[in-house]
Amino acid sequence: MLLGPVMIGLAGFQIEAEEREMLLHPLVGGVVLFTRNYESIEQLELLVAELHALRDPHLLIAVDHEGGRVQRFRSDFTVLPAIGQLGKVYERDRKTARRLSQLSGWLMAAELRAVGIDFSFAPVLDLDKGVSQVIGDRAFAVEPDTVADLAQCYIRGMHDAGMAATGKHFPGHGSVVADSHLALPVDKRRYEDIQFDDLIPFERLADSGMEAMMIAHVLYENIDANLAGFSPFWLRDVLRQRLGFQGLIFSDDLEMAGATVAGTVPERAERALAAGCDVVLVCQTQQAMATALDGMKPYNNPAAQLRMVRMHGRAAPRRVQLQADPRWQQAVKQVLAYDEPHTLDLI
To answer: Is residue 42 in some structural domain?
Structure first.
């Protein structure tokens, strides 16, 4: 059974009957997990195994597990520092920062792969301009060269742990005040201003083989009339053609307030796919998910299928094996230490 272009969410700790029916729908290709789906690590392992058993190839399972403010699972996982801390280390010691960034990417990915989760939507490639509260220390730094350098190291660690990487939020969310979860952010800059600033990390990571990118729900009103996630200009002309990106393109969650200007949920999904997204996220309410699946037309994109298959996690040690590995034990110690700058000389 082919993987469909829609990633949905679940209401709780187990799969409900109505959700099971949706998960078998041909338009569905994956599941995004949230804190509401996590009771214990044992419960999570059972849930992931059940999800994987539903389909062949198995449904993709993703989560936002960046560290800092955005980490859906905390109990029995390493509580990761915000990656903005790595930018602070970079200011004083680039070599150490690169090493810690790779180690952080490995630790994040290794712990998720150990329970069967395919990938985290990471790393953030936005620039921390000191403007966007929703981005802030979720970004590595304000300088695009620093972000690109640390992100490449972080992704190297993810790959070492068997996880594909997803850079977000293209073409850059760090220069707008509004939170797209709650409102429509509008960026008034010219294309040239973004090209030689925000786009630099996305371009460099596109060149180095990053598997996926997620699009911002931001309107760049002096460049294109459509939000980036519904814009053929941003997705086809810029990301595919100018930047040469060949990986998977995710929309951000289509239930977010920033996306509501694009019509009903099925209309948003179809507009995003027509503009160039490969996979759309509808993952908050069962009503929106059901409405999307009922209202969308059949869809098949062979190129997107190949890109989705690349997102499946590669073989990795299970949790007990991982936690017995001295590499994991040292990684936990060193990653937790850089969250407190005064201890840097100890690592």
So the answer is: no
Average confidence (pLDDT) over 272-282: 97
DSSP symbols for 250-267: EEEETTSGGGGGG-SHHH
As a whole number of angstroms, the distance between CA 29 and CA 280 comes to 10
Report the CATH number that the domain containing residue 181 is assigned in CATH.
Answer: 3.20.20.300
Q: pLDDT of 184-208, one tens digit each? A: 789 999 999 999 999 999 999 999 8
pLDDT over 80 at 182, yes or no: no
d(CA 323, CA 111): 9
Q: Which of 76, 181, 193, 224 is catalytic?
A: 181
pLDDT at 302: 94
Cβ distance 335 to 80 under 8 Å?
yes
Residue 84 covered by a domain: yes
Residue 311: domain span = 59-334
41 located within any domain? no
**Nearest CA among 134, 139, 136 for reference residue 124:** 139
Confidence of residue 314 (pLDDT cuts 50, 70, 90): very high
Active site residue 312: no
**Annotated catalytic, 181?**
yes
Q: For 137-166, what is the mean pLDDT?
A: 98
Which of these is catalytic: 252, 253, 278, 312? 252
**Cα gap 9→233, rounded to integer Å:** 29
pTM score = 0.95
Instruction: Tell me, yes or no, whether 249 lies in a domain.
Output: yes
Q: Does the pLDDT at position 76 exceed 80?
A: yes
The residues, ordered by sequence, that sit 6+ positions from 10 with a Cβ below 8 Å of its Cβ are: 16, 19, 31, 33, 36, 37, 47
The tally of domains found in the chain comes to 1
